[in-house]
Amino acid sequence: xxxxxSYSQDLRWQDCEDPESIAEQRPGALILLRNPxxxxxxxxxxxxxxxxxxxxxxxxPQQALGIEPSLGQDIAWxxxxxFPQGESINPRLWTHLxxxxxxxxxxxxHTGVPIQRISTQPLGVQTAQQLHLHxxxxxxxxxxxxxSSQALGLQLPLMTNWGYSVTAPVRDALQAPRGSVMDWAQQxxxxxxxxxxxxxxxxxxxxxxxxxHHTATLQRMYRLLNDWFPGGAHLSSPQVQVWRGVRGHLxxxxxxxxxxxxxxxxxxxxxxxHGASLAAGCARALAxxxxxxxxxxxxxxxxxxxx
Length: 307
Description:
The protein is α+β, with helices and mostly antiparallel strands. 29% of the residues lie in helices and 27% in strands. Strand 9 and strand 10 (188-193) form a beta hairpin. The two termini are 17 Å apart. The model has no long low-confidence stretch (mean pLDDT 89).
């Protein structure tokens, strides 16, 4: 996973000339540790991370304040783990940039078109109007398995959960985060995205798209944002956006990227909460596979056929 993440990071801004996207890129990430148990957990794993070539360092609160000077003073915490090569981006803006680049290169994008089934003989996708024939099909269906299970008989042990994000305008730039900060105990991440601040947290196992938002989870997220960066975000603004999305995970935590076992049909799914982190690497590896080229990194561990 680390190899794929590092490879993806190297590709993420390749040939990017969009000044707005580059301006919203923020280097560095902090994991804030509140108690001795969390500190001991990371102290045991720090040598393993460093052996893998991951730059990371345990910092005192005073050292961490040098990186994120707006951190709240009313929360008791012991230490912070700093990843100087970590990165936070605006995934929505980055995705729009990718779309524009793809269309400029001649890609035709059809949205809002329901696909009824995947045909393997002949190879194509069936819509209400017709069967569209293709040389190759890549299923990027996230946590949804209907197309892959019904037409292809693939039964990946995909588990789903739902998470939240709240995005608000910056209220005071001096009080807002500079990069990305994670509260390890609460499993919440606060990220600066240009003139916005986003917090992601929450875990729901049995929700559906129609399930009402969990008020207690959202209130906890608002409190965390105010505790860590008081006055940094304008939470009463009409521009505050609340989002809940579903994520698909496989038991080993790795995505399914590669051949499906059916000629011409490929999979790129089950990225869990690492979608933006792994997207560029997975896409490039799949492009190499489809073209019959060797991949830059070993992708065998991510084969959908491992189950």
